[in-house]
Amino acid sequence: MQELARNRRKNQTDAEIRMWYYLRNRRLGGHKFVREQVIGHYIADFVCRESKLIIEVDGGQHMAAEAYDQQRTKDLEAVGYRVMRVWNNEVFSNIQGVLDRVLSLIEGALDKKPSSCVTGT
């Protein structure tokens, strides 16, 4: 599975390449993303582990695989991830809107996390 993920990193779609440009090196709000990440028996396009958010960039092939995608999303949610799906054309026509949605989901998730602050006795 790791080898397949490596191959997918080398052969990303144009939309995934564009999306990665904005997510890499903590460019989006300082949040760290990884690409083509193995989670269980799936490979997620982009993952922010800190907020447990997966971003899937979907092309036309996903229209035929709707049932598979629904099960995949359900399985990933069962292990604590949220899945955001974006169409290829949206990455090209409205990247700022996509990035705003990503940030909104991340910030919402981080606001719900319990504070890691430890108080002394």
Using brief descriptors, characterize the structure shown:
121 residues; alpha+beta; Endonuclease, Chain A; 4-stranded mixed sheet; 6 helices; disordered C terminus; Restrct_endonuc-II-like
Q: What's the structural blueprint in terms of helices and strands?
A:
Layout: H1 2-10, H2 14-23, E1 34-39, E2 42-48, E3 53-58, H3 61-64, H4 66-78, E4 82-87, H5 88-93, H6 95-112
Parallel strand pairs: 3-4
Antiparallel strand pairs: 1-2, 2-3
Domain DUF559: 2-106
Protein name: Multidrug efflux protein
GO molecular function: endonuclease activity
Detailed description of the structure:
By secondary structure, this protein is of the alpha+beta class. The protein has a single domain (2-112), classed as VSR Endonuclease (Endonuclease, Chain A, 3-Layer(aba) Sandwich). Helices cover 50% and strands 21% of the residues. The chain has 6 helices and 4 strands. The chain has helices at 2-10, 14-23, 61-64, 66-78, 88-93, 95-112; strands at 34-39, 42-48, 53-58, 82-87. Strands 1-2-3-4 form a 4-stranded mixed β-sheet, sandwiched between helices. The model is unreliable at 114-121 (pLDDT under 50). Residues 2-106 form the DUF559 domain. Keywords: Endonuclease, Hydrolase, Nuclease. GO terms for molecular function: endonuclease activity. Pfam families: DUF559. This is Multidrug efflux protein.
